[in-house]
Design brief:
disordered C terminus; eight-stranded mixed sheet; 10 helices
Length: 339
């Protein structure tokens, strides 16, 4: 991965495993990523590939069955010296100071994060009071300004209302307000629009992009939707069964995909105006048991280009311009139909 000084977050060989009865599930299995400051990284892949567990590992918000087996997550904050988040105690003072303050997260279902018995304003203010030395009145004024910035109508009234009085799109705006209220450097958005209809999805994504331009924060956008990634991301990481299969700029990954899994994902996405000329191609087969992954490339059993070498450990290949691919067929060239 890149050694660019503009990197905000550097993940190296991250391994997060789950111990369930006698099974070991390698949810994150050697992930390496660089997240550029002020940019949006799209982390994309099928459900269950390890995207959300990667995010929860960054924030040190893992269940008791999870074990971080290896790796480092270096956070290059503007406010402090670089720190390996994996060396901090999850419930310790330093990690709690980073979580919600320097690194925030918004989730797929706002109702699972919003407390139904507390007013919206009180829930936004709680984060400010936790991390900053300010009065409740000053914090409430900041919360009100954030709601206005997020285009919530009648913000003065709505800040005193409860979550059940908000629509799905408005709840997600509240979640964005909670995530940004302490001016974090990194916002992790885990499937932030999945539960919303298409029109509201577009509004939320446009709003996040506008706020990013205004405030300069970095986004990790976790999604299975390649269309969303094509619209908003600067860099793209394609994940499959705990590993990053392909990483590069949006242009490289979408216009010059070099891993068969990336190509399969792109072929399964509807294209506006296609008129049925090119039929969608589902990815054949099914994902393997995460507690019994094949040796080498875990996508090989579903791959039309699989070779005997795919059963061995496969390093990244740089096919140009920092475009990294974990595939034996990507030795400096693209994977093409019929190869």
């Amino acid at each position: 991965m890149s050694e660019n000084k503009d990197i905000l977050l550097s993940i190296r060989n991250l391994k997060t495993h789950f111990h369930v009865r006698k099974r070991v599930i390698r949810a994150v299995d050697g992930v390496s990523l660089d997240v550029r400051a002020g940019k949006t990284l799209g982390l994309v892949g099928e459900s269950g590939c390890g995207k959300s567990i990667t995010a929860h590992t960054i924030l040190r918000l893992l269940p008791k069955t999870a074990r971080i087996k290896d790796g480092e997550i270096i956070f290059h904050s503007r406010k402090r010296q670089p720190v390996d988040l994996l060396k901090l105690q999850p419930s310790g003072k330093e990690m709690r100071g980073i979580r919600g303050n320097d690194i925030s997260m918004i989730f797929q279902d706002p109702m699972s994060s919003l407390n139904p018995v507390y007013r919206i304003g009180d829930q936004i203010v709680e984060s400010i009071l936790e991390h900053e030395n300010t009065t409740r009145a000053e914090a409430m004024e900041r919360a009100l300004e954030m709601l206005k910035r997020l285009s919530i109508p009648s913000a003065e009234k709505r800040i005193r209302e409860y979550p059940h009085q908000f629509s799905g799109g408005m709840k997600q705006r509240v979640m964005i307000a909670m995530g940004l209220i302490c001016n974090p450097e990194l916002l992790i958005a885990d499937e932030p629009t999945t539960a919303l209809d298409v029109t509201i999805q577009a509004q939320i994504l446009e709003l996040m992009q506008e706020l990013q331009r205004q405030l300069g924060f970095t986004i990790i956008l976790i999604t299975h939707n390649m269309g969303i990634v094509a619209d908003v991301a600067d860099d793209v990481a394609v994940m499959y069964m705990g590993k990053i299969m392909e990483f590069g700029s949006k242009e490289d990954v979408f216009l010059r995909p070099s891993h068969p899994y990336t190509r399969a994902l792109l072929k399964s996405v509807p294209v506006l105006g296609n008129s049925g000329r090119d039929l969608l191609e589902p990815i054949r087969g099914s994902t393997p048991d995460p507690s019994d992954l094949p040796e080498g490339c875990s996508f090989a059993p579903r791959c039309d280009f699989a070779k005997p070498e795919c059963g061995q450990a496969i390093p990244y290949v740089d096919v140009g311009n920092g475009h990294l691919v974990r595939c034996v067929l990507a030795e400096g060239r693209e994977v093409r139909d019929g190869q």
